[in-house]
Automatic annotation (TrEMBL):
Belongs to the tektin family. This is Tektin. The keyword Coiled coil applies. It comes from Echeneis naucrates. Transmembrane segments: none annotated.
Amino acid sequence: MSLPENSPLQSGGPNLINMEVMRTHSELFRGQCMRLILETDKACKRMQNDDNKRLDQRVRDIQFLKKELELKLEEVIVEIDVLVALHNRVAKAQEACKDPLRVAVVCLEERMKRVPSERFHDEVDKELLKEREIIEGVASLLQRVIEQITEQIRLNRSAKYHLEKDLKEKFEAQGIDNSCALLTTSSVKNQKSQNPIIVLPSLAVTPKQWEDISEINITKAEQQRTNSMSLRALVESVLEQTAADMQKQLQVTREAFQLNIQQIKSAKSQMEDQLSKILCELASQQKIREDLLVAITENQQFLALAKARLDLRRQRPAKEQCHDPAQIQLLAEVQQLTAHINKLHEAVAQSEEEQRALIRCQLELQENIEIKELLNIPPHLKLHGNYKLSIHYLDCLSIRVTAARPS
């Protein structure tokens, strides 16, 4: 029986063909692995490079916002310091109102001690009451200003707090991103062995929202700074105006005192003997006539001023033509001034009649001068009446002259 023909490759030994296929497949797989290694290495390096660029860009963004925040924080701090200094000025101005107010009250109380015949509501009382009202109004206004400044300081400090908090968070974020940029594979291996990596969920803050947070803080701080500057300008104007009002009223009251003193001195000089009384009365009548003419001129000036103000207020827009208290006061002032001027004209005419009557009395006294006795004021009367009143007014005036004024 003959055996089948068989090649050596088909003998019962190892299957060389299959082995060749497996080797070829292994070589192909090895080549794929090498390419995969190269691709992954290239991809890792590219991603590392991208990460570094993104981190550098992020650090630059943080630095830019930090600079903006720092500039705004510096401006807010300066504004807070200026407001605090202004607060102290207003507080001192309010404190300085106490002395003039005390002096005005003392003068009113002292004038109530006059003798009953001289205790009437004259121009001096009117100006003193007006002065007290103005000083009390200034003190009340300054108190409201102090409250507004205190509130604005609080708002500025609130803006400062948010800026500082934002800066602190930016500083921490910048430090973390800088640390991320400096991390290497070797440093990560060291940290990996110590602290396991925990993947946290991403926060719900977009880059736009992140930037808007700082922009909102900067905008709010700028708004408070603008409000603070406007308030400072208003307070400076209030301080200037209130000081001017008080100085003006102090001067008007002082002039009223001086005028009253002159009138009292004039009345005192008329307490001479009968002839001297008539002669002094003639001189006084002449002087009072001149004073009346001056008063008429002054009242006419005030009347012209009131009418000018009324004419100017008529130029207001139609919707602003309000019959407000100022308009009522001006109309009443015109009526009162007109009545005063008419009364002054009547007083001038009456003064001329009085002068003619005094001249007749003077001629009659000259004819009977030898039988007339001169009347002298006893020494004890100098402690009463107009003498004491005049001295009291002088004392009040000296108190006012030395009184402190608000700065």
